[in-house]
Design brief:
single chain; alpha/beta; seven-stranded mixed sheet
Length: about 450
């Protein structure tokens, strides 16, 4: 229709000159009206978006992105200054590891840089199938499927597997990708209080009329550092004949003696129906995600999951780098051990300094609650002046009034790095008066409401 407005007829043969002139005037008039409406509409939209941005700035303060001009690691260069990085998901320090880079380069030489295709057309190489097999073995599941990200994996799983006759029972603090994936699905939604097993059981009872019941939870909650009570959830899933899905994005490579995640940590490998995770954190920090689980589920995802069907294959260098990361974990658990040694040191020293950290002591996510978003941003900037790179998180990433600075520990950190970070927090905490505030009792409020 809009093309018709912009184009004159292909031919005016057989049309009188007067009629043709009338037609052209109508087209010009209609186009002018359309352009005017678009201009007015765009002006209103621009003002609306500008106001939205201003409202966010009032809550968050500075929202500009910091620029890094070095490889990812414990020591990075930001704004031309060397700083210590305590904000990366680089839990094992593999983002710039020589062996990971070597494997990535090797595969790029043999299989190229990109695929330029989705998997089912001409985007499946032998290395993709090999990596899926390795990840299935790593997670002790029957099969595995790669996605362009864990966000896409979570976004595609529910709509593919469930209908309006089924139910999803979700922890209220689950990751945004799970929330978005649930919204794309017609299944009934039940939201249980964060890690509250009594509330979960009540929702399972209420969902008994549904044909399929799927419990979904983060393994490690990214904003709070909490560890899901997986053994209890498995018992409830068995009792009420429900499937169980966990997102291991922040636990793969982190938890368990050999870094195989929360299922290894609790000794329940093979007892979870669906595991989603990422290649973008502990396993080298590139892009890509995966789902592992029962073969029937994986086979169905290959033919129905829209993010899989309509997104390019994971790039060969990323596949190669992940081979390198998995090989390092198979050969030794030294990096996992170093990570937890650093974590124990950091939490102990922060406690001695008077800070109360959120999260489970086994998780390398260590949030300092500051409540006010603007204040949290100011503290992050002050810490940057002390060469400690941390980021403040506020609404809408976390609930209003629960802004925090999230510290993330890595195996790449040295003891000296840990001590410098604690010293900087202590100095700024005393100067700004938030040291005592972190000792207050913390009540987590619902992160999202879903009907």
């Amino acid at each position: 229709f809009f093309l018709m407005l912009r184009r004159p007829p292909r031919s005016t043969q057989g049309v009188s000159s007067a009629a043709s002139d009338v037609y052209k005037r109508q087209v010009v008039s209609t186009q002018s009206t359309w352009d005017s409406a678009m201009e007015n509409g765009n002006a209103k939209a621009k003002e609306h978006f500008k106001q939205m941005l201003e409202d966010i700035k009032k809550i968050k303060g500075n929202i500009s992105e910091r620029i890094i001009s070095s490889p990812q690691g414990a020591e990075i260069v930001s704004n031309k200054r060397p700083v210590l990085n305590f904000s990366a998901n680089n839990y094992l320090g593999l983002c710039n590891h020589p062996k990971v880079k070597e494997e990535a380069a090797k595969v790029m030489q043999s299989h190229g840089f990109g695929m330029g295709s989705v998997r089912f057309i001409c985007g499946t190489q032998d290395i993709h199938k090999k990596l899926e097999k390795e990840l299935a073995d790593f997670t002790a599941t029957e099969d595995c499927i790669l996605f362009s990200s864990c966000f896409d994996a979570n976004g595609g799983v529910f709509e593919c597997l469930l209908s309006d006759k089924d139910a999803i029972i979700s922890d209220q603090l689950n990751h945004a990708s799970i929330i978005d994936g649930m919204r794309l699905c017609k299944a009934k939604k039940f939201i249980y209080k964060h890690m509250d097993m009594e509330d979960l059981e009540n929702h399972l009872k209420n969902a008994q009329e549904c044909e399929i019941r799927l419990i979904v939870t983060d393994a490690v909650f990214s904003m709070d550092g909490d560890l899901t009570p997986l053994p209890c959830i498995i018992k409830l899933a068995k009792k009420y004949k429900a499937l169980l899905m966990i997102d291991e994005a922040h636990s793969t490579g982190v938890l368990g003696k050999t870094g195989r995640g929360v299922t290894e940590h609790f000794g329940v490998m093979g007892k979870v129906d669906i595991i989603t995770s990422t290649l973008g954190k502990a396993l080298g920090g590139g892009t890509g995600g995966f789902i592992s689980g029962k073969k029937e589920i994986i086979d169905l995802l290959r033919v129905k999951a829209r993010p899989y069907l309509f997104s390019n294959s994971v790039s060969p260098p990323i596949v190669g780098g992940t081979f390198g990361s998995l090989k390092l974990l198979r050969e030794s658990n030294a990096l996992v051990t170093k990570l937890h040694s650093n974590l124990k040191r950091f939490r102990a020293k922060m406690a001695d300094a008077g800070f109360k950290l959120l999260g489970n002591p086994e998780c390398p996510i260590c949030p300092v609650l500051l409540k006010d978003g603007k204040f949290a941003s100011e503290i992050a900037e002050e810490l940057l002046k002390e060469r400690i790179y941390v980021v403040a998180f506020s609404f809408p990433v976390v609930p209003k009034g629960l802004a925090r600075i999230r510290i993330q520990i890595s195996a790449a950190h040295s003891e000296k790095h840990i001590d410098q970070c604690v010293e900087a927090f202590t100095k700024i905490g005393k100067a700004k008066g938030f040291l005592a505030a972190t000792k207050l009792q913390i009540f987590i409020q619902p992160f999202h409401q879903m009907k």
